[in-house]
Each structure stands twice: as C-alpha cells, then as structure tokens.
Amino acid sequence: MTQAAMGKYRWTICGLLFFATTVNYLDRAVISLLKPYLAAAFNWDAQQEAGNYANIEMAFKLSYAIGMLFAGRLIDKLGTKIGYALATFLWSLAAVGHALAKGTVGFATARVFLGITESGNFPAAIKTVAEWFPKKERALATGIFNSGANIGAIIAPLSVPLIADNWGWQWAFIITGAFGFVWLILWFLYYEVPRKQKKLGEAELNFIESDKDEKPEADEAAGPRLTWVKLLGYRQTWAFAIGKLITDPIWWFYLFWLPDFLRKQYHLTSREIMWPTAIVYIISSIGSIWGGWLPLKLINRNWPVFKARKTSMLIYALLVLPIASAQYVGGISMWLAVMIIGLAAAAHQAWSANIFTTVSDMFPKSATASVTGIGGLFGGLGGVMLTLFVQKRMFVYYEGIGQINKGYFIMFVICCLAYVSAWLIMHVLVPRMKKIEF
C-alpha cells in the first residue's frame, strides 16, 4: 500500500512536536542574547554580568535536570494530550514571566520555573512518537521533531535583539513566550491518541500498530506503572541514562560555548559570530533528520530494528572523531573549523534521535516517558558537571595563563571520545535486544 493510500496524519502530529520543540529551545535561548541589555538595565559591571549570568543559567540547568524525573512520571500518568499541554502552558507562562524580573534573584526564580516546566517537552514528545509511529519510523520522526532545537537556536539570534532594540528586553520574553499559547490551540485542534482520533484512517492505524511485540495503547494504559526504583533495576534503563549522561553535556557545550570559541580563536565581533553559529545549527538540523532516515533505510532492507539502531549510532559516534582537529584545520581556514564542528553537532543530533528511540524499542509505552525522564535527569546532571568543570575550573585556569586555546583543545578531545565511549558502555549493558515485559 502506498503512503498516499495509507494516509499521513501521523506526520501532522510530528509537525506539532517539531513546533513545540522549536518554541522550547527558543524560550530557553532568549536570555543568553539579552545579557548586554540586562547589564545596562540593572547596572551590572563586567564581573557582575559574568557571575550573575552563570548563576542564572545554573539555576535553569539544575531545575531542568530535576524536573525531567518528575515530568516523565507525570506525563505517563496524565497521558500525552493533557500532559504535553500542561507542560507547554506552564513553560510559556514562565517564559513570559521573565519580563517581570527586577534583578538576579528574579531571573533565577523565573529560570527555575522555566527549567522545571520545559523538562516536560522531551518525555512527552518521545511518548507521542511511541504512540503514533511503528518502530521503524520512530527514529525519523524523532529526528524531525528534534531538529526543532536547532531551528529555535537559529531563530533566537535573528529575532530577539531586533525585538529588544525596538520595544525593550521585556517584550522579547513576552513575544517569544506567547508562541507556546499558539501551539496549545493547534494541539487541542489536531491531537488525540490514535485509537480515538477520528481523522485517522483504518489503514494508517493498522500501520501504526503493526509491531507484533507491542500492544495497542488502549491496553498499555491499563498496564502497571513501575516505580523509579524498579525501573533503575533494569540494565536497559542504565544503558539509556549513562548514554545521556556522557553525550548530553556535549550539546550543552556547543550551545553555550561555540560563540565564545569563535570570538577568542578568531577575534570575531558579536555580529560576525552570527553566521558561523547559524551554519553549525543548520548543518546539525540536517544531521538530525538524516540520523532518523538511516536506520529506517536499514530496517527497510530487512535489518532487525535493534541492529539497525546500534549500527547507525556507531556511525554517528565515529563522525564526531574529527572534531579533535578543529583548531588545526581552523588554522587553514575558520570555515573548515566551522564545518567540522557542524559535522560533530549534526552527528550529535543524529545520535540523539536514536538514543531517544531506544527507550520505546526496549520499554512498553506506559513507561516510555518515565524512562526518558530518568535519562533526562542524568543528561542534565552531566551538563551541570561539565559547566562546573569547564566554566569554573579549566577555562578559568587557561584564560588566566593566556592559553585558552589549550582549554578548548582539551574540550574538543572530550567531545571526540564521548560518543564512542557511550556506545561501548551501552553495548556492554544491552548487547542484544530484549523488550521489557511488566
């Protein structure tokens, strides 16, 4: 049966996930672009600006990591329709609420609420993909919606300064935060679980439920809910959590330190940094979608799902290795360094699309959001630890002795080795596919 005859409504749902993820990353990126505006508004000197911003961002990362654990559990309990809507409504309120802040404490408080509520996006999105797509299409669907993270990172620098210059920094928070409320309208207009969605044809429903080792979501909803302690008793949970712990911090490094690297390595101005940074995120968007397409291609060639997933993830891990040479080739041309960093960022997004999908490969749908939340907690804590190591220690030390390039070289080597290390650990923990049965 052709795709046209079967129907494509599931891709409309994927589009909603893409929209939500774009808004999610747009909202968290706004404050990083308003640093000079806030410093002027609150009379922060250079040292206060750096210290206050570090504290504000640390508040976000810690609350995001902790929120992941509870968000996944809540979404498994409430279901995707209500759980996702509640998370988006609350994080949009938190995003708009930044406009009311009067100083460091106010912004830190707003970031705590934003971190807790934004943590619901990925557990809800991964659970939605598990409900709406068969296994062979899940990595592609995840890669498409996950590319919204890159689009949000591109839109932010192109829009936030313009809004702040014309209407003030408060309106930058208000306007970007309001997009979440637009998404809510579309969500309630178009979303329902497959078996309750009247717009879904029978042929497409049968395709969505074509995996023989999975039950339809109506049966899953009646299944048991395992506690966090019991979920942590499975090797599969630890494989996902450790994979996130090792590789998630690398993405945080790209997000928060790429502009600083370009500024100090190539002496670029803030305006000159915009395009190299945008190109890295454009490349990574392509990688996110390609990362989901490759395992689908292998599965269509009759590869077992788990073998296709692990082989693809190994390829993505190997594609990160050239980043260790970023500074060397950057000595020839800055754009060569940008391309290599872009390749590594693309490989991360491809890896991310598949590591998320391993959860629905290994666990029933009733536990998908909870396990995703546990992995998100580990990934967030890894990001916090990397911040403490890089921002508070290594970079400060090398900056102090005038050799910041050595600090970046060490960090690029860490990036280089992270994914291969994570893949090996995951392979040792889960060498063969084994679906968890409650």
What's this model, at a glance?
With 438 residues, this protein is mostly helical. The protein is built from 20 helices and no strands.
How would you portray this structure in words?
The chain contains 20 helices and no strands. It is an all-alpha fold. It has one domain (3-429): Growth Hormone, Chain: A (Up-down Bundle). Helix 3 crosses helix 4 (46-78), helix 5 (80-97) packs antiparallel against helix 10 and helix 9 packs across helix 10. The longest helix is centred in the first third of the chain and has 33 residues, at 46-78. It is globular, with a radius of gyration of 21 Å.
Kindly report the CATH topology: Growth Hormone, Chain: A
The topology string of helices and strands comes to: HHHHHHHHHHHHHHHHHHHH
Q: What is the assembly state of the chains in this entry?
A: single chain
Number of strands: 0
- Helicity range of the residues? over 70%
> Are there runs of 5+ residues with pLDDT below 50, and where?
218-222
Q: State the distance separating the first and last CA atoms.
A: 34 Å
Shape: globular
Number of DSSP helices?
20
The chain-level mean pLDDT equals: 87
CATH architecture: Up-down Bundle
Strand content: under 5%
CATH class categorisation: Mainly Alpha
- Main sheet overview: none
The CATH homologous superfamily is called MFS general substrate transporter like domains
